[in-house]
Amino acid sequence: MVIYILIAILMFGVLIAVHEFGHFISAKLLGVRVNEFSIGMGPAIFSRQKGETLYSLRALPIGGFCAMEGEDTTSDDPKAFSNKPAWRKFIILVAGSFMNFLTGVLLLLLVFSQSAAYAYPTVGGFLEGSTLEAEGLRAGDRLIEVDGHKIYTYGDASLLFGRAGDVSNVVVERDGMLVTLKDVTMPLRPFTVNGQTQMLRGLTLGVGYEEKTLFTWLKATWYQSIDYVRMVWMGLGDLVTGAVGLKDLSGPIGIVNAIGEVGEQSDGAADAALNISSFVAFIAINLAVMNLLPIPALDGGQVLFLVVDAVYTKLVRKRLDQKYLGYVNAAGLICLLALMAVVAVSDVIKLIH
Predict the structure, then answer these.
(1) Secondary structure (DSSP) of 207-257
(2) N or C: which end of the chain has fewer CB within 10 A?
(3) pLDDT digits over 148-201, tens only?
(4) Are 107 and 116 in contact (CB under 8 A)?
(5) CA angle at residue 315 from 313 to 318, to 5 degrees?
(6) Three-class SS state of 42
(7) Known catalytic residue at 145
């Protein structure tokens, strides 16, 4: 277990480094002065000045930063971030999330390279008393879409049917042709399976396989990446609607523990490496999406300020003072740290129990 915890901490450090490197390399390429590029937080254990940038490695592997000239304040330096056009700022701001997303995709490429074939869900059959066959579904149909939500992976089928309404639109592939079934009535109702009564839709899931080729390998990787993005948005939606609460959130402590459990439950070192890689890919893509939310102190908040500044400048012919951006970012950072503290305490309580 200890080795997996160490791997998890190392992975966090790598994901943070990759994110900050995205900001750093894009800033350098677009002519913005970077005062310091740091991996880690807290006291510096190594630093070196090279050109205009101080490169540092800090003691705590829980963060990092790319400190650009004029990022939060006004500056007379022509190479300051605040003096660059909006399109350059936008690229620099989203580059960190792009690098995290790219990291997730590359990890999934590695994971799916080990597969001999790629599974997809089908209609396996119908439970006794089900009316879905009369609604137009057929055993062997490949499931493509439920209520406008595309089925990217095998696991999507049970997820989307679980979230579907009592009356849904379903798209299937049958004999090589897409078939759209509108207003399929499939409420959750009691069915007896193996002597136990369960609330089900009335069908069982089967599995089909696509032969591994370069195309199916790339397609499986891309579909899983997009599916991870959708899972993050679904989670955020559930949080907003109250379907899940803060107690269901996990921070670094919970994620490190989860990675340890993934490793412990795997069959051998090779299987553990693949399972952990898939989990870390999800975390990387999760970070990419979350960082683009329009919240102060996150990259998405900075993009929002770009838009606000552009509109303000257009209306009053004068740019917003960067110090106000600094104030809002500081307030956002305090709120973000407070949330992280609450989630960390929740993670510890869950570990104790």
Answers:
(1) EEEEEP-HHHHHHHHHHHHHHHHHHHHHHHHHHHHTSS-GGG---HHHHHH
(2) C
(3) 999 999 999 999 998 888 899 999 999 999 999 999 998 888 888 787 888 888
(4) no
(5) 35
(6) strand
(7) no
